[in-house]
Design a protein that fits this description.
single chain, 306 residues, alpha/beta, 8-stranded mixed sheet, 4-stranded mixed sheet, 9 helices, 17 strands, globular
């Protein structure tokens, strides 16, 4: 079976971790250990988040006095794809001796008229005091928003991925038995104009990009890995309850945080609706158990539910 794995941001940096290189190297060994057993019986494509890493690079490039302007987000996303891809590829090679592993910088094609470009909502970079954030906004044309914790952050559009540009290349690599690491951070967002690709300033949701890639690759399973054992409806409230088995419609009927579980739920639902295949959401360390139906939240087509 072909499985697309979407690693959450906790894959390389756990909550509270310092963003040191040594910490990320250690955490990626845990990732490889958790998912390597699946590679013995399945073709694997591994996508990953890059939130903490792109935030750190955005802060550094904004503060660098040698630069006339901060690096654009497409270059920051590409940099994090290379760094995280290298870490994952090396750890997976160690965990799968003799197996081919390739990390691929990828681009996500988006629509130039996507409504998201008129509603920037995705935070990037550090939180600033309000006056400093407003100064950056005036000087650099940023959109800023209150982060709810006393700081102000830059917010950018999150256009919906139409396809991953390198899908055919991923397909060829899978055909040669290669484990593929790609679509980091959702991919570098680009638009097609007269046959040419142009980068746009924004960030693509990594889970929705993984779902799009899984659909186009005709994967049999989308596995969304995070730091909780399963989906919880009304998470963190007195009404919290685990969701262990659901159709896309049943899953969407719940209430989830828009900046954490919400995109994962939507990605799983979209994939199942589009393909009739299975998706699941659960904890990284239980990856093998989730695929074999012994952990996590299973999302299945409506006609097959129950």
């Amino acid at each position: 079976m072909r499985i697309v794995i979407a690693l959450g941001g906790n894959a390389l940096l756990l909550r509270g971790d310092r963003p040191d290189a040594a910490v990320q190297r250690a955490n990626v060994v845990r990732v490889a250990t958790a998912i390597a057993p699946l590679a013995h019986d399945h073709d694997l494509v591994i996508t990953h988040g890059n939130g903490p890493q792109v935030d750190l690079l955005a802060e550094e490039t904004t503060a660098d006095p040698e630069l006339s302007a901060p690096f654009p987000l497409d270059l920051l996303t590409a940099q994090t794809q290379g760094m995280i891809g290298s870490l994952l590829a090396r750890a997976l090679r160690d965990a799968l001796p003799g197996r081919r592993v390739a990390a691929l910088v990828t681009h996500a094609l988006v629509r130039a008229d996507d409504p998201a470009f008129g509603r920037p909502t995705t935070p990037v970079g550090p939180a600033y005091p309000r006056q400093l954030a407003q100064a950056f906004a005036r000087r650099r044309g940023w959109h800023i928003a209150d982060d709810g914790r006393g700081g102000w952050r830059r917010v950018v559009p999150a256009p919906s991925p139409q396809r991953i540009v390198e899908t055919e290349t991923v397909e060829e690599l899978l055909g040669s038995g290669t484990v593929v690491v790609c679509s980091g951070g959702g991919g570098v967002p680009v638009v097609a104009e007269r046959g040419l690709l142009s980068a746009v300033e924004g960030l693509v949701d990594k889970d929705l990009a993984a779902a799009r890639l899984a659909q186009d690759l005709k994967a049999g399973f989308l596995l969304v890995l995070t730091d909780v054992p399963n989906v919880y409806d009304h998470y963190g409230t007195h009404r919290q309850r685990p969701v262990l088995d659901a159709t896309p419609g049943e899953l969407r009927a719940g209430r989830y945080a828009e900046d954490s579980m919400g995109p994962k739920v939507e990605a799983a639902a979209r994939f199942v609706e589009a393909t009739g295949a299975l998706a699941a959401i659960g904890a990284l360390d239980a990856a093998y158990e989730i695929v074999h139906g012994r952990s996590g939240t299973l999302v299945r087509p409506a006609l097959a539910a129950g």
